[in-house]
Specification:
Bound molecules: the ligand Nc1nc2c(c(=O)[nH]1)N[C@H]1C(S)=C(S)[C@@H](COP(=O)(O)O)O[C@H]1N2, molybdenum atom
CATH superfamily: Oxidoreductase, molybdopterin-binding domain
Structural class: alpha+beta
Number of helices: 8
CATH class: Alpha Beta
CATH architecture: Alpha-Beta Complex
Radius of gyration: 19 Å
Oligomer: single chain
Number of strands: 13
Shape: globular
Strand content: 15-25%
Distance between the termini: 41 Å
């Protein structure tokens, strides 16, 4: 049905995000303010910052071409109890260490050069390919998916990504039997990427991340080329980034230029820098605390234009256990 336009999920009314639910959440929020566990003081977070909501330059960063026609894939439920995070908040609260060590990197990230982008897919595959963005959009059917997003720093959002499943790319390049892992490499250019601006030791640029091939072949593993129905803004990792909703956010490498299938588990950026805080697997797990804070709860950033959050319980695999738990039942 190529001419049937399916409205993107984030434009549909959200019957399940009821007034009752938000009332309960607010109660929960107030209750937890009293006995706050991990405090905003622990992690560099802006509390109720009126921030950049009114900044016309912020809106300009996401007034990008639409990605249409768009088919919404609603197979991956589990976000009905939460509203979709508003774009004005999601686009000004990011992690992109190449452009700075705070959440407020959206302006600095506009220096990312995205013209003539190419993604090289190679290593242990039968059909190595170099794609430009148009190739990717033509070859792989784009769809919209609403996913929970959980950062290891215990904040979370619900985001409407547009892209294609990683398994489609795997099918196109055909991994050889000796391919056991994939390595994603982000763009790096020291001339336009000043880094975090505080001392972390010698940094293993470029940013890299990795999965086992079976994880990459899972239905949930996704490459995003858009968000909120439009092309990806630079602060979200334009023009293509990984989205792995059952893992902590750092697994989802931004601005990918290289995808390699390899035989051995590769070194990755955060795991190399701080191995005790950033495990290789990094599945969301409320029962496994970070060395410096609990992972049992998260600060959910939802609607509105002023940055604030409500505490929510963190779920095993970020709520996606039915799709991925099999991967880990050794
Ligand atoms: N290249 C690169 N990719 C990255 C990061 C980064 O600093 N550099 N940060 C990661 C972390 S810690 C998170 S939480 C997400 C944030 O994605 P968002 O800013 O689009 O919400 O990107 C991940 N991908
Ligand atoms: Mo993160």
């Amino acid at each position: 049905m190529p001419f049937l336009r399916v409205p993107p999920a984030w434009q549909l009314p959200r019957p399940h995000a009821t007034a009752e639910a938000s009332y309960q959440n607010r109660r929960q929020f107030l209750k937890q303010l009293v006995g706050a566990g991990i405090g905003a003081s622990l992690i560099p977070l802006a509390g109720c910052r009126s921030g950049d909501a009114e900044n016309p330059n912020l809106a300009a960063t996401y007034e990008l071409p639409s990605l249409e026609p768009l088919v919404s894939n609603d197979r991956f439920a589990g976000v009905d109890d939460r509203p979709i995070t508003s774009q004005v908040l999601a686009s000004q609260y990011n992690n992109f260490y190449e452009f700075g060590g705070s959440k407020n990197i959206w302006l600095a990230a506009q220096a990312l050069p995205v013209n003539d982008w190419q993604v090289e897919v190679g290593g242990l595959v039968k059909n190595p390919q170099t794609y430009d963005l148009d190739d990717l959009k033509q070859q792989f059917d784009l769809e919209e998916r609403l996913y929970r997003f959980r950062c290891v720093e215990a904040w979370s959002m619900v985001l409407p990504w547009v892209g294609f499943p990683m398994r489609s790319l795997l099918a196109a390049v055909e991994p050889r039997p000796d391919a056991k892992f994939v390595r994603f490499t982000s763009a790096y250019d020291a001339d336009v990427m000043p880094g975090p601006g505080f001392h972390l030791g010698s940094l293993p640029w470029p940013y890299t991340e990795s999965l086992r091939v079976e994880e990459m072949a899972n239905d949930l593993a996704f490459f995003a080329v858009g968000i909120y129905g439009k092309e990806l803004p630079k602060q979200h990792g334009a023009p293509i980034r990984a989205v792995l909703p059952w893992k902590y956010g750092f697994k989802g490498a931004k601005s990918i230029v290289k995808i390699e299938l390899v035989a051995e588990q590769p070194k990755t950026y955060w795991h190399t820098l701080v191995p005790n805080e950033y495990g290789y697997e990094a599945n969301v797990n409320p029962d496994q605390p970070h060395p410096r804070w609990s992972q049992a709860r998260e600060r959910f950033i939802g609607e509105g234009t002023t940055l604030s959050w409500e505490w929510r319980e963190t779920l095993p695999y970020n709520g996606y256990g039915e799709f991925v738990a099999d991967l880990y039942s050794a």
